[in-house]
Every structure is written in structure tokens, then in C-alpha cells.
Amino acid sequence: MSSVSATVIAPSFEGDFSPGEAFSLEAGGVLPSPTLHYAIYGRPNAAADNVIFVAHALSGSARVADWWPRLFSQEGLLDTDHNCVIGINLVGSCYGSTGPASIDPASINPASINPGTGDPYGPQFPLVSIRDNVRLQVRLLEELNIHRLKLVIGASIGGMQAIEWAIQFPQRVERVVSIGAAPLQAMGLGLNHLQRQMIQLDPAWKGGRYLPGQPPRQGLALARALAVCTYKSAELFEHRFARKPDRGGEDPWASFHEQGQGLSGPRFDIAGYLDYQGERFVERFDANAYLAITRMMDTFDPARGYASAEAAFRRIEAEVMLVGISSDWLFPAAQIAEMAASMLQAGVRCDHRELISSHGHDAFLAEPDELARLIRPFCLQ
Amino acid sequence: MSSVSATVIAPSFEGDFSPGEAFSLEAGGVLPSPTLHYAIYGRPNAAADNVIFVAHALSGSARVADWWPRLFSQEGLLDTDHNCVIGINLVGSCYGSTGPASIDPASINPASINPGTGDPYGPQFPLVSIRDNVRLQVRLLEELNIHRLKLVIGASIGGMQAIEWAIQFPQRVERVVSIGAAPLQAMGLGLNHLQRQMIQLDPAWKGGRYLPGQPPRQGLALARALAVCTYKSAELFEHRFARKPDRGGEDPWASFHEQGQGLSGPRFDIAGYLDYQGERFVERFDANAYLAITRMMDTFDPARGYASAEAAFRRIEAEVMLVGISSDWLFPAAQIAEMAASMLQAGVRCDHRELISSHGHDAFLAEPDELARLIRPFCLQ
Fold it and tell me: Which chain B residues are closer than 8 Å to A291 by Cβ?
């Protein structure tokens, strides 16, 4: 561990971008006027060849330094003395870019007594894909006069964006690092589906038309708690919690009604932890955005529209590094290794590494120093 | 595959037993008058030394041949030409034994205008443990003049009962086979907790006071769907479903509202499968019983009340076979192997086998022939 101060790193600029015209989506819908919220750390140099795009994961934001601070303190990674780092909030999210909580322009009735107002998209928000986001990200960077990226890096949904950048815009990116990302397999698709149903089961969801301040808290918390199980590993949970009773003093052997908790009963420590993770998440995330982004995650498939994944990979000109995480059961390391083999087969200059960690999928957040050690040589080439 | 007719094997007798007095529970509650529903296949011989108790898993019943039919067609296992097979429904379940849907004697008011009626236990049903069930099972067998069992066999919660039989009543059992059973680890405890919360999130649960015919269908279906994920393996799901769209013709790429399904959206095939498994389960299981039995499963811990698991195992006189399932992630094979090592250390004549299967925890139901092949030599000794 190097000694790094815990000072929050602030962006040098935060802004919003809109292409100023309707945007047609891969799945068939249209966003009449999408907005991208972005954050910039450091500055582009004169040649604008020092720009790194960091693509965020499901619940992240454009403010990269808020969720990946230690990569900023690593020379040769996101150090802003040498690099300009840009983060862009996903369309479909709830941190500044257009999402289900944004006003649906179609709902604005100019003849109404409040002609300027309208309703949020809510359940009418269309399916937005990873590729849609990448295409919009390119438009934003064009606007900023950034025509080529030194590096696109991301993990999970961020890694999906990185891969689509390499495939869809081969001329525009020099180097790509994708961590713990691949098309979801059946188990992951199933668990995402169940998470969406938990939100919808909450009567407060109201078919997606809940009011601000009255979100489906319990459903979203429960979905997050299940997601946390998929982001961590059984090994880590066993090490941390094993069969300990809840640290708040509950006795798992008490009869249900004795502690007034209904039949769910007094908890083991792991249950208290999952509940806490769920409750915290509700304070910072929107339920409909969660539905939208998990579907974005589900539909990621680089082969879509090509004869095969390999055919898609043949388009890649960037140097690619794929990182699997040894204990990741949402995106198994073996699947990442297969994708790397397929890229090599397709002629991609693809480097493959495995992050050995018990932290599961979340290792990209939980083990930033180990991750940095693994990817630095590639990023510094 | 041998050729076996699909004829349903009927019990030679089904009945109910009550000890006729209040029963004090391990966790501290009392059941004033518990009933055990049981089924017998074949007949005890004159010495009553041919009796096999088959302990059922979470959603099973006393009617063993309904859920484990192929073990009845295997000579040397449950063939009723030579053996008398008995199944006993768990207290806490909903197939005839006392459970949350039974009338709570405390709710019967003799002064009411309907003196004979009362309310179901519902959320007042006390915590009943594996050991409580085993103690009651011994009482029932005493009543039937069966003082010693040739074999206790079970998988999952059934395997937990088998282990407690060996520890608590060492004189009463000759041989024990426990399949895919061990104290739940943190991941399993967490996922059971989330399943209970799904049921409770359903407004139809009504604090456990739902009316017959108006159960929390969606919550219970969702809990079962998650349980199915824990009972199967990622490998099996990937082989069967991969990223295929729902076989009913839904397009995972359709926008949510296009098919009128809310934001959860059109499904992948795995999602359709999980939904179907959930819906089927609701037709045959009670939500409060699900809460009660998952807590019974959570609290299983052979070491409880002893200095260690090994100290508990030292009581065992039976020959034991522990079977792990290679792809089981609810009760990992490595954990079963450790328990076997601990039994050996404690001086138990313990045999350990691993069922190699991609079917996950469910392999004990999905691969009966393979299982039979593995355990027959031990059972025939």
C-alpha cells in the first residue's frame, strides 16, 4: 500500500452534451433529445492524444475519481499530470444523463396550462444498448475535438463499453482494457431477471410510475442485495461472515415473532450485511434506471449483427487487454479467457490476465492496487 | 437407463401420529399437539429390522415414491420386496404434518360462538429445528414398534436429518446416507434470507395472515425461482439455455412497453424457465411453510450444544456415507469432504463419495441412477 491522501479528486470540468437531434436506438426506439453528462479530470494536451475514457459500471457515474480514486494516484494509469481522464454517465442511468427519470418529451403537452412540464419516461423508457451509448460517447468526444482515445478502460458494464469501442470505432482507440466483462451467461441473465422482478413486486413501484420520494425502496434494496451476492464470492462471504449471528445482537435461533420481525426472523450476520447494502443503495439509485441498465447489460453481445464474435473482433485495431477475475461467478474467468483466445484467433493483439482475488466480480473496486499492478505495463507501453 | 414402468408406487399405509402431549422445541417454543404425517411402503418383517427411513428435502413429502421413484426400482435400495420404507413429513411443512397453516390451538376460544374453530399459526409458528423433527420421528417409530432403523437416507434437508439421527440416536440407526447436506455457509444463508424477504415483500403475504386461496403467489414464485438457481449449476443453465430468447417467442431486444410487460421486458429463455418453475411451485407449496423450513435449514448445525462438530460426531455409532455433488454450490462438495474428514477424525466409520454431475444440488433428484450406483454397495453391505 502506498501512502495516498484521502482527498477527493474533483473534476476540472463537468458538463452536459446533447447531439441536438433525435437519436435512433439499436433496439428500434428513439430518444428525441438525449443528454450525456460528463466529467473531465486534467486537460487534453495540444495534440489531444492524452485522453483516457473510463467507462463506468452499473451504478457508477461520470465522476470516475469518486468510485475509482486509487487509479488516479497510480502513475501510468489515471494520473492527470500526464493524462486527461473523461467519464461519461450512461444513458439509462440516474447521474445526469438521460434516463427513465428524465422528462419524456412526448409527454409534454404544449396546450396544457403548464406547457413546460411533462412526465418522466418511467416504464416508457426505451431499451438503450451498450452500442447506443458508445455511439453517443463518440458524438460527445467529437464535440470536444477528441478524435482518438489513448485508452478506453472499464470493468463490468464499463468493460462492455470498452469492447464495443474497439469493435465499432477501430480508428478511434489505441488501447482497450476490459475487466470482468463478457456477454452474460444464462445464470447471470436469470439472476438479473429475478432482480427486476423484485423491484416490480414492490407495490410502491406502481408499474414504473412511482413518484419522486416514493420509490420502491424494498424491492430495489432486495434486488441490490441479490446483486451483491453475484458481485462477491462464496469464499469471501464465508471468510467474513461464516455462520455468525447478526452483529447487531439478533439471535438466529429466536422464534420469528419474538423480535417482531415477521417470519423472516432474526438474522445471521450475512443477512444483516445484505440488508444494509440494499438500504444504502436505495439512497443513491433510481429503480427504473436499475431496470434499464440491467437490461442494457443483458443485451450486450459483441457478435450481434456479425457472423460470429470472431467476425466482430476482426474489426479491432486497438491493442486489447482482457482481465478476468478468478472468483467472479457473474463473468467467469474461464469465459474471459475464451474471449481472449477468440480475439487472438481473429488477429487482435490481445493480452490476457487474471486477477487472483477472493472478492468476486467486485475485485475491480475492492483490489485497485492489485488491478493497477496487473494493467500498468500494458497501459504504459 | 434400465426399463422401468412409470406406474405410481402407492404407500401400503398412510397415517398421522401425535405424541398426545405438548412438545418442547429446541429453540424454546412449544407445540401443544404436533402431528406427524407418515407413509409406509412394504411392511416391517417380524424382527422389524428391515426398516428404512427416507427423510425428505425442503419441498418433499412423506410419499417418498412420489419424488424418488427410481430408488424404489433399484434392488438393494428401496425395493419393498425386502425393505419397509417409511417417509415422514417435516413439522413446519404443508403435506400433512403440523405447520404454519395448521390451526394454532392458542387461537381457539372455547367461549366463542364457534368453539371448535381457530386461526392458523401463520407468523406465530415457532422455530422448529432438524433435531426437533428427528426427536418426533423417533417417537412415531416407537409407536410403530420400530426401535432401530436399518438405514436413514436423505438429501439436502433430508441429509441433515440423517446426520442428526446418527448423532442424537446412535443406538437407533445402523447405517446413514447423507447427500448434499452440511451446515449452510454464508452465501447459502444470505440467499435463503433474500428468498424469505421476497415472500414478505408481496403485499398478499399480509404479515403472514393471508387467507387460503389468496397466498403471496408472486413472492413465493420469485423465492422459488431464486432457489432453483441455487439448486442447479451455471454449467447446466448455460448448456440448456445459454443466451437463447424465450421459447414462447419473446424478443429480449424488444423495448419494455412493446410487449406490455413493464420494464422487466421480454425474456431470455432462462428467465421464462425460472418464472415457470416459480409458478408451478406456488400450486403445491405454502408460503409460510417455506419460511419455516428455510429457517430450519439455516439453523442446522450438528455442533450446536457440543464443544465442536467433531465432539458431536464422536457420538455416532452408525456407518455413515456422505455424498457431495461436484457442481453443488449451495452445499459445496469440498465442504462435504471436510465433514467426512472430520467424522473420520472422530472415529466414525465414514465413507465419502462424490457424485459427478452438472445438475448442481438437484442432482439427487435429477440423476437417481448415478446416485443409486454410488450408494448401493454401501447400502447392501
Answer: 256, 263-265
How many pairs of residues across A and B have Cβ atoms under 8 Å apart? 218
Print burial letters for A47-80: b (CB count within 10 Å at least 16), e (below 16): ebebbbbbbbbbbbbbbbbbebbbbbbbeebbeb
pLDDT, block means (10 residues), chain A with 381 residues: 61 96 94 97 95 97 96 85 95 98 87 74 94 98 97 98 98 98 98 97 95 94 98 97 92 67 72 97 97 97 97 98 97 98 98 98 96 94 78
For B28-68, how does the pLDDT look when each residue is reduced to its tens digit (9 = 90+)?
A: 999 999 999 999 999 999 999 999 999 999 999 999 999 99
**Cross-strand partners of B23:** B31
Query: Measured between alpha carbons, how far is residue A177 from residues A24, A353, A376, B247 in Å?
Result: 28, 11, 10, 36
Using DSSP, state whether A52 is helix, strand or coil: strand
Alpha carbon separation from A279 to A100, A121, A219, A272 (Å, rounded): 21, 25, 10, 11
pTM over 0.90: yes
* Beta bridge mates, B51: B84
A286 and A121 Cβ atoms separated by less than 8 Å = no
Nearest CB neighbour to B123, from listed A257, A274, A288: A257
- Kindly report the nearest CA distance between residue A244 and chain B, in angstroms: 9
Measured between beta carbons, the chain B residues lying within 8 angstroms of A266 are none
Q: Strands, E, within B148-291: which ranges? A: 151-155, 175-179
Among residues 134-163 of chain B, which lie with CB inside 8 Å of chain A? none
Provide the angle, in degrees to the nearest 10, between the axes of the packed helices A186-201 and B217-231.
160
Does the distance separating the beta carbons of A203 and B255 come in below 8 Å? Answer: no
What domains, with CATH codes, occur in chain A? 13-184+302-380 (3.40.50.1820), 190-292 (1.10.1740.110)
Contact B295 A265 (CB under 8 A): yes
- What count of other Cβ atoms lies within 10 Å of the Cβ of residue B298? 23
| Helix B186-201 and helix A217-231, axial crossing angle in degrees, nearest 10 | 160
Residue B77 phi, psi dihedral angles, 5° rounding: -110, -105
Nearest by CB to A238, from B124, B185, B234: name it.
B185
B224: left (phi over 0), alpha (psi -120 to 50) or beta: alpha
Please name which of A229, A317, A331 lies closest in space to residue B197, comparing C-alpha atoms. Answer: A229
Query: How close, in Å, is residue A188 to chain B by CA atoms?
Result: 8
- A291: contact with B, CB 8 A cutoff: yes
Answer yes or no: A361 catalytic: yes
Pick the catalytic residue: A37, A56, A352, A361? A361
Which of A337, A333, A326, A322 has the alpha carbon at shortest distance from A359? A326
Mean pLDDT value across residues B308-316: 98
Which residue has cell 463506468? A56
Amino acid at B266: P
**SS3 for A316?**
coil
Q: Report chain A's C-alpha Rg in angstroms.
A: 21
